[in-house]
Amino acid sequence: MKHSQLKLLLIFVSILLIGCQTETINCEIETSEGSIFVELYPEKAPNTVANFLRYVDAGIYDEATFFRVCNPQNESDREIQIEVIQGGLMDESNDFSPIQIETTKQTGIKHKDGVISMARDKPHSATNSFFICIGDQPELDFEGKRNPDGQGFAAFGKVTQGMDVVRAIQKKKDTSQYLVNPIKIVSIRRK
To answer: Which of 27, 53, 93, 166 is deepest in the core (most CB within 10 A)?
Structure first.
C-alpha cells in the first residue's frame, strides 16, 4: 500500500514540475500605435525576465518610447544588418543595476520573428532597453557577428499578438535609426 501511495505522490509532483516548467508571464505593451502582447519565459531566462519585470512593476516604462528602428534602408552600410525596433528609456537615471547576460546558448531562445530581447553594449551591461525582432535575426544569437564579442543578446520572450504594430513602428521613416518623433510607450503591464 505504501508503495502505491509513494508512486501516486511521485506522479503528482512530476505533474506539478512539468506545469511549472511551461509557465509563461504575459504583458501588454501599450503604445501610441496600438498594443503589443508578449509572453515571457522565466523558466528559460529567469534573470532577464526578472530584470524586465522590475521595470514593468515599478512603472518605469510608463511614458518610455520606441526610439530606434533598424530596417534595410538605414542598415545598408553595415556588414551585419538586422531588423528590430528598440524601446525603453533614453534617460539612464532610473536604471537598476545591469544584469548578467543569459545567452541564447544558455536559454535556447533564438532571435526569431517577434522575439523580445535585451539591448546592451558590452556583456553584462543590459538594463532597461529592449528590442523586438522583425524576421529571423541569427546574427543576434550567441556566436552571431552583430556584436564583436560573440555573446549575442539575451532573448527572453516573444510577441503573441501585435506584430502589425511592431512592423508599423519599424516603417517610420527618419534620416537615421533614431526617430525624431519616437513612438510613445503608454505603459507595460502584466496580463
So the answer is: 166
